[in-house]
Amino acid sequence: TPRVFSGIQPSGGLTLGNYLGALKRFADSQNSGVQSIYCMVDMHAMTVWQDPAKLARATRELCAGFIASGVDPDRSILFNQSQVAEHAQLAWIFNCVARMGWMKRMTQWKDKAGKNQENASLGLFAYPALMAADILVYHATHVPVGEDQKQHLELTRDIATKFNNDFGVEFFPITEPVIEGAATRVMSLRDGTKKMSKSDPSDMSRINLTDDADAIATKIRKARTDPEPLPSEADGLAERAEARNLVNIYAALENSSVEAVLAEMGGKPFSEFKPRLAELAVAQLAPISGEMARLMQDPAEIDAILRHGAEQARAIAQPILARTYDIVGMVR
Ligand code: ATP
Ligand code: MG
């Protein structure tokens, strides 16, 4: 039976990229009847330094972001990773299955470790093995993510395959990445070749879900573009990363397509398109940030939701971990 798992790091505030690439899609897919498990991956967040008080706050705010985006804790399991120890337990076994060479090829490792790899944390290097454990400890079959996580999901399949081969079992499923829609890779507003990220040092590079209308309008007005008006056909965006990004965002917010947006906006200059985009973004995001702020007034309620979700998650993970221990020969 299909089972969905996905995670988001409480490594900062949520961005429009997280919303369009993840949260909105999670909320939209809730009626499919498939069991969905969504995790605030706090153990992944700490692979780069996090101030403890900020990490706790970001975890609660992330949970508020899920709910405000329309993910219903009565229908989906919502919890934070560190409350379900089975993730870390399975990750250790996967650390012993995965190879150093596989990890070294990961572009996220290279991007985040930067030039000084010797000084990056061991956790950042091992990140994809923990991510494989997050998914496989539930025998999840489908993982909706943004384009940037495709390589990690291929590694998850490699880990599952190698485990099954090494131990001569058909135990872990081979997971399907689900990367769909107009905005699976929202780019930085300052640089059309870099993805929008909550951990980018420049706040002008991203739209935060908690930004107010003025901040959103300013960031879109100042977003880097070229001087040409919008083309009327999608091919006209091929060599124009920044223009393409803004059109993709518009299409995703509107639930339409790039073709439909260009049919309406083709020929218009950015001085006309940008205010329209800002208006659309504000209209969609303002109710979400309002609801997040409301939910954040009661942190104890958020903690109760996460605790309850963790219990539900553990009930699925425990027997899968127990079976894994049997397979590898760990005596209990
Ligand atoms: P960080 O910079 O700390 O890595 P992030 O913004 O990349 O933060 P993650 O927690 O790493 O966010 O990713 C959460 C989910 O959001 C993943 O499914 C990821 O693919 C998706 N995602 C992240 N950035 C984007 C983006 N720019 N466009 C579309 N989806 C994105
Ligand atoms: Mg990321």
Automatic annotation (TrEMBL):
Its EC number is 6.1.1.2. Homodimer. Keywords: Aminoacyl-tRNA synthetase, ATP-binding, Cytoplasm, Ligase, Nucleotide-binding, Protein biosynthesis. Belongs to the class-I aminoacyl-tRNA synthetase family. A motif ('KMSKS' region) lies at residues 195-199. A motif ('HIGH' region) lies at residues 10-18. It catalyses: tRNA(Trp) + L-tryptophan + ATP = L-tryptophyl-tRNA(Trp) + AMP + diphosphate + H(+). GO terms for biological process: tryptophanyl-tRNA aminoacylation. ATP binds at residues 9-11, 17-18, 146-148, 186, 195-199. The gene is trpS. L-tryptophan binds at residue 134. This is Tryptophan--tRNA ligase. GO terms for molecular function: ATP binding; tryptophan-tRNA ligase activity. It is an enzyme of class 6 (ligase). PANTHER family: TRYPTOPHAN--TRNA LIGASE, MITOCHONDRIAL. Catalyzes the attachment of tryptophan to tRNA(Trp).
